Amino acid sequence: MSGAILIIGSGAIALRHASNSRRLRPDCECWLLSASGRELNLVDYQADGVSRCFSQWQALPLAQIEAAIIAAPASHHIDYALRLASLKIPLLIEKPLALNAADAERLLPSAKQGYIALAYPLRFRQQLAQLKQWLQAPEHGRLLHVHAHVGQHLAAWRPHLPYQQSVSAQRKLGGGVLLELSHELDYLQWLLGPLTAQCALSMPQPLLQADVEQSVTSLLTSADGVPVSLHQNFVQQVVQRESVFTTENAVLRWNLLTQTLICRYADGRTLQANAEHSDMYLRLLEQFYADQAQAQVQPSAPLATVAESMTLLKTLDALRSMMRND
């Protein structure tokens, strides 16, 4: 055995990372650390490739850890990241980086000295790469407007758990649509560059029993002045996830649920991107472990960096401060 992969957290995404890590790094054990300190029963996690469970940081054989993945609530991210970074352990952090930009600032010195990547898996969608190419194609002309929409009822996310008990419904843990559904803002910034917040409207009368923002419509602008509207909600029953990019000469529509990307022209012609055939979560981890094998000092594209995630958090903080519910 080469060493161990430490995964902090025990939820669905942590176990997905454990299973994929065993597949990609069969030479390593996968260890699970409870972020809250509760006792974990190994029998419950062995099917996901976990070989050891820990409830306390102090019990970890730190010298055996080759890499680590933080998949705990966002409120725990920075504290664990600082501990691991001080040991020079390559690190992958699940989105979002932190609760806010001020909290994340504490990690910037460590990110300049060691390997820390952020897990935004939509960057590994093949259709997103195709979309970026189409947006850069001269024949499409200038980009005029962008709209992205993501919505699903929170109770449907984790049917086995009352939604009121989920991380998504608790502000102190990093819940709310701005942070929990930040995938959209990340891929928009990856496509268009940093976005400037202009205004944000929240739903005036909450529909869920949760102390978080449940529906937010934001207006942002790109460095070129392109208006970008983003809608995120936890309350619609019909799942929706799509974006539309309107240019001078074409309309590009990406539906993430049907996995279709279509470019339509005025003369009726259409282009359709190839269907997705690979697992974006697996591709993300492949890149993370490839970086370790090549002794990369910083994450390789399209993995998100701490600096990029800081920019995203500053944008979210600005939207939150502007949020009105009238």
TrEMBL record:
Pfam families: GFO_IDH_MocA, GFO_IDH_MocA_C3
Sequence ranges assigned to domain Gfo/Idh/MocA-like oxidoreductase N-terminal in this UniProt record: 5-113
GO molecular function: nucleotide binding
InterPro entries per UniProt: Gfo/Idh/MocA-like_OxRdtase_N, Gfo/Idh/MocA_Oxidoreductases, GFO_IDH_MocA-like_dom, NAD(P)-bd_dom_sf
UniProt keyword annotation of Isomerase present: no
Superkingdom, taxonomy of origin: Bacteria
Keywords of this entry: Signal
Keyword Signal assigned: yes
Annotated GFO/IDH/MocA-like oxidoreductase domain residues: 129-238
PANTHER family: BILIVERDIN REDUCTASE A
Protein name: Oxidoreductase domain-containing protein
Species, as recorded: Idiomarina xiamenensis 10-D-4
Origin organism lineage: Bacteria, Pseudomonadati, Pseudomonadota, Gammaproteobacteria, Alteromonadales
